[in-house]
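Hey, I was hoping to borrow your eyes for a little while. I've been staring at a protein lately and its backbone has me curious. You're getting the sequence in one-letter code plus the fold written as tokens. Would you mind checking whether the tokens look sensible for this chain? Here's the protein in full, and shout if anything looks odd to you:
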Amino acid sequence: MFSYSSNDLRSGLKIIFDNEPCAIESSEFIKPGKGQSFVRVKMRRLLTGTRIEKTFKSTDSFKCADVTETDLIYLYHDHYFYYFMHPENFEHFQVNQKTIGESSKWMQTNLICNVTLWNGLPIIVQPPKFIELKIIKTDLGLKGDTVNNSSKVATLSNGAVIKVPFFLKIGEIIKVDTRSGEYVSRVK
């Protein structure tokens, strides 16, 4: 397996630290007036998402993490796992509920998600930034309610409940930001 010295650490590089894959966010080479040079690194653990800052000697070395990102198609889920398929070689992957996390409410059949694989196993699943969903339940907006820039609650086809503008009706398709869970626009 390929290894890097601490002087090679750059933003975006993925290494193994404490037996976990980590993504380097920033690194700074420091040569003090006295003593040995060192590298100050900010990195994020890919399994937990926690951010850590470490200082390494310039002679330290790290193994390269076998981390790749690929687009996979979401197929279905059962009580324990979510199932995805690679669109080119039709290889199937199963991902547990903990790995999916909050993204589970945006999963719908045939949705293309960006999946990070470590040694061939999914560790991060990200749905697209924007998805289109149908409003299946909402209250009618009253005529006088348009004075304030307020909103009403709507239930979407995937079961998610978000705030939408008063002019939207049942059956309309809207664009939703999956990162914030907010209404973006109406789809025509």
The mean pLDDT is 88. The chain has three domains: 3-63, 67-126, 130-186. The chain has one helix and 16 strands. The CA atoms of residues 31 and 37 lie 4 Å apart.
